# Entry
Amino acid sequence: MIERSHHDMGGLPAGKVERSEHDYAEWERRVDALMVLLSGVFDGKKLLTVDELRKNIEALGPEAYDRMSYYERWVTSITQTMLQRGVITTEELARKMREVEERGR
Amino acid sequence: MAVEALFRPGDRVRVMRAYPLGHVRTPYYIRGHDGVIERLCGSFPNPEELAQMRSGLPAQPLYRVRFRQNEVWPDYRGRPDDVVEVEIFQHWLEKG
# Structure
């Protein structure tokens, strides 16, 4: 049994804290906006809670957790939550990803 | 709809030493440690339930609990009266 989940790293040795400010990329701002909109009340109900966001971030494998940036974790988790709630289907997501990929060619 | 608050400021408590699956907001490093209730923060829907798309009701009392740093970290080298405060839901606390 694994007692400590990978994300639960309080107290473990860590590197220096990076204190400098940095700008956000446009896609990062969009992910943030997406989170605000989905966690607001839509048609009388929320489409996402911050706790679901956390659950799906915590479910990332240690390797993915460390490799992804902050907002990459968010967008992965938001997508997972939308699939779990049936807001979108895996098929719809796959088709859309193909479409976007082809547009970029 | 809220669970009755069982602890008062100054009460000694022990954090449950448990490692369940699911979304848990009680940090690993504080489980099993002894602390003192600093204040009741209010009652909130249980995040462990909210994370699983349920209501989280009845709401659970949330406390700010104070721990001595040198009790939490065996190799702590700061002042002996340094503390760390952690917000912990009532269902993770037992009488200390």
About this structure: Helices of chain A lie at 26-39, 50-58, 62-67, 70-85, 90-103. The longest strand of chain A covers residues 41-42.
